[in-house]
Design brief:
The chain is an all-alpha fold. The chain has one domain. Helix content is 79%, strand content 0%. Helix 1 runs antiparallel to helix 11. The protein is globular and about 50 Å long.
Amino acid sequence: MRSVRTPDLWFLVFICLIWGFNLIAVKVGLREFPPVFFAFLRFVTLAVALAPVLRLHREQMGALIIAAVLCGALNFGVLFYGMSLTDNVAMVAIASQLGMPFTTLLSIALLGEVVRWRRWLGIALSFAGVLILGFDPLVLQQGVALLMVIASAFVGALGTISIKRVYGVRPIELQAWFAMASWPMLLLLTLWLEHGQFAALRHATLQGWLAVGYVAFLSSLVAHTGYYYLIQRYPVSSVTPLTVLSPLFSVIFSITLLGTAVTPRLLLGGAVTLAGVLIIALREQRIMDTGS
């Protein structure tokens, strides 16, 4: 296995920091914009920036659009709505990690993948951790928000399965199509479900616009593009497990910057969930590297 060079290792930690702070930026943006409208702003900004890299892939456009809507509009629309209902960003960071076990379960159901005991253990731990978290009294008061975050993770997992049916599309093109397919749907949804969008635009502060720029450019463009660069350069098993740092950073930022209350159940549920996710990540990447 090729070791990650020290500069690239620090670059990966920087990427995890960007992703870790992303939920904080989202929470700042949601204080000024309605949630679906904020998701629309994210994707329309990204769509304008990435329009030059869009290419038609005629035989794959159906699968590409489905993947884009699932990973883009629906995933982020539901996530941002859930986040608008809670101030507990740490809970969001932990519960959103169910995307990986959901993806594994969907791979079994839809792709016929065979999963052995280690990944079943990881799946069980991931859900057990979120269950522990869910019985935290502070989280129980915001149960709808938790359910929305879990639903977002499931939708994102469906999108990941859909991406597996798309071939020969560069990662930056995928992001461009995610944005281009998402903003029209989000525009219709925000006009249907929300109000006050124009007032939010008129009264938005610099912080609000910085939040839009952060989630569109730093989180999506810089961090994801950098991550895919590292994936192309090193074995996946050398890169992916370290991304567990992202939710850890989110929890730390939410506690230090937003004043999220730390409870024993939050710490225990987070530790159990992340342990399960790490087991799944290590096992899946070993399978990718060895083919067994």
